[in-house]
Write a structure and sequence with these properties.
Largest sheet: 6 strands, parallel
Number of helices: 8
Radius of gyration: 17 Å
Structural class: alpha/beta
Number of strands: 6
Strand order of the largest sheet: 3-2-1-4-5-6
Shape: globular
Helix content: 40-55%
Strand content: 5-15%
Order of helices and strands: EHHHHHEHEHEHEE
Oligomer: single chain
Mean pLDDT: 97
Length: 228
Amino acid sequence: MSRLQGIRACVFDAYGTIFDFGSAAARCAGIPEDKRGALTALWRDKQLQYTWLRSLQGRYADFWQVTGEALDFTLESLGIATPALRSRLMDLYLTLSAFPEVPDTLRRLRDAGFVTAILSNGSPSMLDAAVRGAGLHDLLDAVLSADVPGVFKTDPRVYQYGLDTLGLTAAQVSFQSSNAWDAFAASAFGMRVVWCNRYGQQPERLPGAPDHEVRSLADLPALLAPAG
């Protein structure tokens, strides 16, 4: 397997890649057990749909608002909407668990000389809470939010914002996402891409082609040539 050459920074999506979005519902005792899986899946689906639709409409609202609106839709759809449950789940979303391999992977990358960063749809306050809650703040050089360009991924302006902030070209960045749509879009944009296919998704029928596919971020350091 050929290693990616010329990489200077490893940039990660946040939700589903670094942070387990399913951990909010998993830690919430107020959800009926038979609806826990459905809540996680529908909440995530509507959250993503709303980002794409708002981007198409040119009606941006930050990810915190979008996440709350997606949760409202989900709780009402499942017939379990209460103010207390909504508040609890939104609070839990601020402190999502990091996947187990994340801290060690980031540490290995930093030790090898790579810049490490997050590029996420999440609002700055959401990302700051998640990063600090998971104890990752000392392992990341930058945490970048789509709130700055005011549009969500997969709009190319988000990926360009990441490059502009880091002062790098697309070819110097290895972008990691567990979301196939994000991985393919970053590849079509020009970044080198490692698709962390945690959930066994099928490849998207979209522009782009990730350079590598892994099931865990622990496999990432071995795919990178030494930092230049």
